[in-house]
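dumping these here so i dont lose them again. two proteins, back to back, each one seq then structure tokens. dont judge the mess
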Amino acid sequence: MNIAASKTNSWTTVSTDSQLGERHILLRRTPIVDRSSGEVFGHLSAGVILDDNAGLLTSLLRGSNSDDVVLTFRTEIIASSISSDDNYTAESALQGIENGKMDLNKILVTETLYLSAANHQI
């Protein structure tokens, strides 16, 4: 996995194969710079696995004061806080929103998109 130099200092989502199947990762690459010379010594890469990330879902729920959160990559649901006790599923909620059949007066939908051939950027 390689983050292109043009993606330095920005968050990028990538999809990669692993022993557990396809995983989606939020990555950032930041240069490490000598303060006196300005020389770049290297880069620090940081990443967060998005698939079924319960900690991230909890933070998003608390920070947004939402009842549920669904994370998608393109059209694939990669994480959801919707439980089997709810009277809807992540799939039905997304389909209802997409088809215009869901009452959006009761639902706040937030979506961040950046279209690229290989990556999504947040």
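---- next one ----
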Amino acid sequence: MFYFITLATVLAADALSRAVASGCIIPEAETKPLLEPLTEREQEILQEMAYGLRNDRIAQKLVITEGTVKSHVHRILQKFGCEDRTQVVVTALRMGWSSR
């Protein structure tokens, strides 16, 4: 079941990314630039979030603690002005962010 959810999340993120890139979905006019750019590590965390990985899986993959992942996720949410993981991934894609 987890694999299905993760695969669905990856496919949805990829489809949304392609739609934004092709101009099918235009980023919202009120989307504001980040007040502070993402660090390289935050970009890595955001990419894994876009793939639907949980904090514990991200920690394992990047060889850091789950607490460190949580701290990065919190800062990413703040920088984007979002309330949850899904919202931040969608917002990042709308801003033209690509996980490739």
